[in-house]
Amino acid sequence: MGTIITLDAHGEELMEQYRQLLPTLEKLNDEAYNQLKKSLDEQGIYVTAIEHRVKSEKSLAGKLELKGAKYKSIDDITDLVGLRIITFYSDDVDKVAVLAQRLFDIDWKESVDKRKLHELNSFGYNSLHYICRLKTGGPRFELQMRTALQHVWSTIEHDTGYKGDVKIPREYKRQFGRLAGMMELMDEEFSRLRLSITEYRRQTLSLVKSGQLDDVPLSRDSFRNYLETNPFDRLNRRIASVNQAEIYPVSMMSYLRVLEILGMETLGDIQRFIDENSEDAFQLAVAQLAITDIDILASNTALQYLCLVHVLKKGGGRDGLKKLYDTINGESETNTMLADLMYQQAATLPFMHKE
Question: Are 332 and 326 in contact (CB under 8 A)?
Fold first, then answer.
């Protein structure tokens, strides 16, 4: 059997006010959620969850039974509608707060930033709480903003009964305190790490644009930024001109692994790879394409011919070409035939006979 809740006359009056207000609360719940969701999407702020609810009659009755006397009317209860935004990073909580300030009227006297309380074992409760009202008016509602780690910690505390009625032994409290400190440190470090990575990407992009490529280690981010400068376009156009072919765009990120295997360590290495092999790559493409009627080429064509020439110049021979094709296409017997054919076509070209 459930717990029987007994309300006094004032509590019953508040409950009746709630029932009359319920349709308005349900509309408020939807409107506040929709405004927040739209604004977050427009600003590109990714959050792990947006929770929203209207307080149930049972939940309200329990609250009124305990402290109904402190409320003069139903309007004094600010969490009849509650929203919670859970972010991945602690600095995103502040971004969400700025959006909320733009969207809603904030009751600053009732709002509280629990992150500034710094109480022992308070990590899971370090949410930023705003008491809000729609710009168009209506009842107030509560908006909580916290990180995913804070949310997980709060759930763990609730699940273990740490905040329950039973007194927890000192040794367990100490363990909770240590873990709370570790979680708080993790929260801060994840945000700090994201800022560091963002700054690294910004510096990398700046170096790419300035041409200081030897200072940029080859990585997924740096290679993606480098591709934005269209380093293979000139050679692609030359190759396409052989058959007046059309070039259709494809991703070249899969070639990052190929370039690493070929010994590229910086973007400067790739630029020299292009400069030293472009003419021979063009000649190899002509030798293969001139006898065909191919009129559509992928945008990774130039890069593939550059890799083929590089392998041959380094003395890789048929085996080197086979390994290259295996890396590009996945291991297959077909790659043996491709390597043989490419080697035969390359054998007649001048770069194969240089000492």
Answer: yes
Tens of pLDDT, residue by residue over 313-346, are: 999 999 999 999 999 988 988 999 999 999 998 9
How many angstroms separate the Cα of 37 from the Cα of each of 81, 127, 143, 342? 16, 19, 13, 55
Biggest CA pair distance of the chain: 102
Fold assignment, 9-150 = Beta Polymerase; domain 2 (3.30.460)
Q: Spell out the domain ranges in the chain.
A: 9-150, 220-353
Two tokens, residue 105:
């009227």
CA quadruple 96, 102, 107, 109: dihedral, nearest 10: 70
Query: Which residues are 298's β-sheet partners?
Result: 248
Q: What is the pTM of this model?
A: 0.58
The predicted structure's pLDDT at residue 252: 93
Q: ∠313-248-324 over CA atoms, to 5°?
A: 30
Of 45, 89, 48, 64, nearest in space to 5 by CA? 64
